[in-house]
């Protein structure tokens, strides 16, 4: 009865009476040329093999193996491919009728087989136990207790690349924690209320490699809405929530690419004492805060008053007598300008500026091929969440819109048309200058970094300053918050340029002095649902931890260690 070719199998002891080969020993000794084979299925061939083993005890063929050291070369099927390509195959197939012929016991009567195998298996057991003991001893010797500084350095390297981390650790044999150690450490990063001390330690280590000008810091803060859910934090054994807002403070370099969330507080308005403690903590690790940014929300206006800053003097002093410039967020100011233009309109001396030319322009251009195809009714009727979108405001108050008004002349009132178009052009140029992100964009003096074309840029800022100082919203008598914020922004930007020039910098990329980085962080916290996705408190902290450790870190567990109590407050 013919059988199929027998492939080598990994695994057990050789059944030949006097052979001491087994899979673990072969692997340990590096004998890669030894393979193990199962019994053939042919009953007659099984009997012949069993006789060759010369064992006095019984064996079960289906559970037994024999090693390749008992077969001659004639017992294997010829591998023509290996011969032609001159390589040694990983395994060799036995012929269907292969027979054991070498390294066999000479005479089973001279070998006490039962006693031999008892002693043999006892020796194997002792050897296996010794191997296990040696392995455990080696693991204990290799176990390292990594310090917080070591873990912080490892996170820094892991942030850049997982492949680079593995290469440095495994190929260059640099002493680094394993990825499982980083996972455990990441799980234990304290993300509860207050300053993130773990993040501060990482910043300190990174700061040791930065120049002084690269550590010039902008602080920005804002609140993000979270769901009012009560949760149980398994890791810290405490109930968290319900909360409605999460205050986040981010630090970023004004002359470098780094940025990092450093403070979290639930339902916590920014106060003077918290603000000073954050600035002082950054100063302790060598990061020099020169500027602070916020929007014009009511809580932030209260902070302005507490810091005793005004649009005429947007600078405050810390208890250490350190002077810091406060600059309101330019994109938020732009949205407020759009809102007041649509809601009330403006008056500058005898000039009127309102939305009538814009309404007529959109009606006229909807039926024609036009240069302001991006404008729609949505830009004028934006309500609720739509008012939070900077894109709609920047498209409405743009150079394209100003040009279209002058080109199409959608209304007969020439003065109103020209005044509105000129106002929109002025706001557009100011926003371009306040949102510069590329150092080589020199299309106009207003798209270049602030400080490169200083005469033209200051002339624009002065014109903008005087316009909004004299401007009044229809039905209002004094300056509104958004006007004071814009005036503070202009004065603050001029002061900030003097400060950074004192540190050797020639210009400011003004996009670093707004809250775009913080808004991007909030969009990552919201992830899938946009403005309507409000994460729970602990889920927000978990997502924040993921962001701190890298965009796609892969070093944190996918579990948040929380239990939702399913108590939601509407």
UniProtKB/TrEMBL annotation:
Stored InterPro entries: THAP9-like_HTH (IPR021896), THAP_domain_protein (IPR052224), THAP_Znf (IPR006612), TNP-like_GBD (IPR048366), TNP-like_RNaseH_C (IPR048367), TNP-like_RNaseH_N (IPR048365)
Lineage: superkingdom: Eukaryota
Residue ranges constituting the THAP-type domain according to the UniProt record: 7-103
Chain coiled-coil ranges: none
Any GO molecular function: DNA binding
Statement: the UniProt record of this protein carries the keyword Zinc-finger: yes
Keywords: DNA-binding, Metal-binding, Zinc, Zinc-finger
Pfam families in the cross-refs: THAP, TNP-like_GBD, TNP-like_RNaseH_C, TNP-like_RNaseH_N, Tnp_P_element
Cited PANTHER family: AGAP005574-PA, THAP-TYPE DOMAIN-CONTAINING PROTEIN
UniProt-recorded name of the protein: THAP-type domain-containing protein
